[in-house]
Each structure stands twice: as structure tokens, then as C-alpha cells.
Amino acid sequence: MKNAKNFYLVSLGCAKNTVDSESMAALLEDAGYRGVDQPSKASILIVNTCGFLKPAIQESLETLQGLAHRKRPGQLLIATGCLTERYRDRVAQEVPGVDGILGTRRWMDIVDVIHTLRAEKPPAVLYHLPDAPTVGKDERGVLRAAIQGGSSYLKIADGCRRPCAFCAIPAIKGTAVSRPPEVILDEVRILQDMGLQEIILIAQDTSDYGHDLGLRDGLSDLLLRITQSAPRIPWLRILYTYPGYVTDRLIEVMASQPQVLHYLDMPLQHAHPDTLRRMRRPANMEWVHSTLAKIRTAMPDAALRTTFIVGYPGETEAEFQALLDFVKEVHFDHIGAFPFFMEAGTASEPLGDTVPEEVKQDRLQRLMTLQEGISLARNQALVGRTLDMLIEGAQDGISIGRTYRDAPEIDGLVFATGEAPVGQILPVRITGALTHDLTAEFISTSRPR
């Protein structure tokens, strides 16, 4: 058919999924295919799905169903990602017209799947879900990064070995597999040569990096090696660390290496020990308080982000109040919060979904209302300070970007008067504070338009 070598790819879910999508796109382009921005221009439609929580599952199914409904004769629709790894039969049943189902553990086989589907007698629905024990073993030399403006996510590991009761990721992706440090360092140098200003290290658990390679405190070692291999990358950011594995040495590396941003994302999930034990999460809150104090002593300007689940099975009002008290005491810069969603097949399923939905929503609103006041106060304390800003866009006399305090897509933005080139880091003076965002003016000697 016309446009037989064109593909249209939709990436849903987290930044880790985005990296997988970019890797698939790179493999397709190496094979002579070309990405397009409209499904009507493509012969191959690909949806890299998310299967982590019920809203994400529903979004993935609806996206697939929408493309299936508009699919023309000769077009192929391929579902890949976490949802297909976990609910392969559900995808086939609820998306009439899907041609191929590719699991997340074999994203690197996308070209092979297309060739099979274009054979003379392909099956009604091609399932390509080989019994791979985990993801991450055969990357086919593709760059495991997702570049967005002057920033790039870089995946350092995949899979997870943690026993969290609410999480299906180990079942979806398998146990943790760290990428070889030499490969990561080669990729960092490539990104440096491309002019990237920020590299964001991601994995299901970045603080577990190197455990399967026999490395002790592997993330600290990797950070040091990155700073030596790519000295021209000004910003290195860490996401998705795990409580109990943010070591004193990691804090020391973050504090002593100018390239490593004073920003740490450590999803805690709750603050009451009984709730954490039911979650099968680290429940030593003394360690949490001690570690947060060490971080702020070593880096007084540290920006701290965490994530919480409200309405977990058995969560009492007293347990939830302990979470509120903890948030009041610690004053995080950023918080992500979600109501609990029961996931079939997880260790939390036998507990039942015991907290009524209206209670979950009430607790979620109370938590986020509390955090809004904290976030606003922390932003107001920045007014008058000078911070570096990574420019991500400019229009109508305003530049939009981020400081070290904000990770892309999940935190706040800075709106600075004047238009500056995308991808530059320039100093700005903070002039105003909103709940999540800041306003600023440029103070660079080479003043933007």
C-alpha cells in the first residue's frame, strides 16, 4: 500500500516507556521505515501501552480502540508495552482489529513482528510474547535514551526486584537488569556530543543499579564515572530512588560533584510504619528522617520529591493523619499522590479494596491541598534569588523552562520575560511565585530578545 514504510507511534505512560518507544523508533528507522505524525499517513500503527494502574490501562485500551476504529485496509495495528505483557488476551478481546501483540520484554523485536505480519498468511492476531525472563538483555545496540529539547532521559536499568505489594512491575518486566556501565558511558558521550544540557538517569529503581553486576553502591560509582566521561554535560538528574538505598556515599557524590543536581526523587508511598508493612515497603521511618536530614545538611538547597498512595487497604484515619503530619514536618518541594487501585495478581489483592472510594478522594484532596501551601511557600522563598534555567520553549516574548528544582513533565516551570534559544542554560532572577511555577527575568549579559 501507499506509505508502506511509514509508521505512527503513540507512547503512553512514564518516561521509562518513552525511552522504549524511542528505541523502537530508532530500530524501525535503521530498517528503512519513517516516522510520521498522523495515523492517516502511516501503514503501521504502534501503541506502546502502559499497564500500571487502572486509569492507564483504560487510556491504553481507548487509544488502541480509537486507532482500530479508523484503521484502513492494509494498515497494521500493533500493541506493545506493559499492558500487552500482562493482559495479552484482554487486548485481543477488547480491541477488534489489532494485528500484533508485542510484550514489553521484547520491544527490540518490533521490526521482526512487522515482517511476520506482512507475510503471505499471518495469523489472525500475532502474539509475540516469548518467555523472556526479564527485559534488557538484547538491546541491539540502540541508544537507550529519549531526547526532549536540551534534555534526555537515559535508562540505566530495567525490571525490578523489590517486593512492593501493590506493584505489578516485577511481573511485567521481570527482575532488575543493570545495563553495562561501559555502554552507558558511551551513550553519555554521544549525548554530550549532541549538545545535550541535561541527562536524567531513570530505571524502575535507580538506587539498585549494579546489584546484579556485583557492584556495591553502583549508582554512586556510575555518577562519578559519568562526570569524568562527559564533563560538558552541566546537569545530571536522578529519578526513582528507593528508601533505604540512598547511601551516605550517594549523598556525598551529589553534594561534591557540580554536575549532579541537588534534586532527589525518592518515592516513599506512605509515612505510617503499619501501612508501609502492609505495602511490603521499608517501614523504618527513623531512617527516612535521618536520611532527609543528611541530604539537607549536605545540600541546604536540595529539592526533594516523593510520591504517596492514599487509601491503601487497611489505611485508618490515624494512619492517614500520620502521613499528613509527616508532610507538614518535612516540607517536600514536590509531591505526587494517587488513590490506591487494586491490581489483580499483586500481593495486595488478598487484602481487598477496603477503603471506600469517597474516602480515598477526600484524603487525596486533603493531602494535595496541604502540599499546595507548602509548595507555594517554598517557591515564595526563592523570589529575588538567581537560578540557572534550562530553556525549553519560547513564544510571544516569554521563555519557558526549568531550574534544577524541577524535573520535566512532573514538576513546575519557570516563565521568564524575553525569548531565549531552546536548549541553553541561562541565569534568571526569580520575580514571582505560584503554587508550582515561578516567574523570572533574564540577567544574562547576552540578554534574550
From TrEMBL:
GO terms for cellular component: cytosol. Its EC number is 2.8.4.4. [4Fe-4S] cluster 1 binds at C14, C50, C82. Binds 2 [4Fe-4S] clusters. One cluster is coordinated with 3 cysteines and an exchangeable S-adenosyl-L-methionine. Residues 5-119 form the MTTase N-terminal domain. The keyword Cytoplasm applies. [4Fe-4S] cluster 2 binds at C160, C164, C167. InterPro entries: Elp3/MiaA/NifB-like_rSAM, Methylthiotransferase, Methylthiotransferase_CS, Methylthiotransferase_N, Methylthiotransferase_N_sf, NA-bd_OB-fold, Ribosomal_uS12_MeSTrfase_RimO, rSAM. GO terms for biological process: tRNA methylthiolation. Its cofactor is [4Fe-4S] cluster. Belongs to the methylthiotransferase family. RimO subfamily. Catalyzes the methylthiolation of an aspartic acid residue of ribosomal protein uS12. This is Ribosomal protein uS12 methylthiotransferase RimO. The lineage of its organism: Bacteria, Bacillati, Chloroflexota, Anaerolineae, Anaerolineales. The gene is rimO.
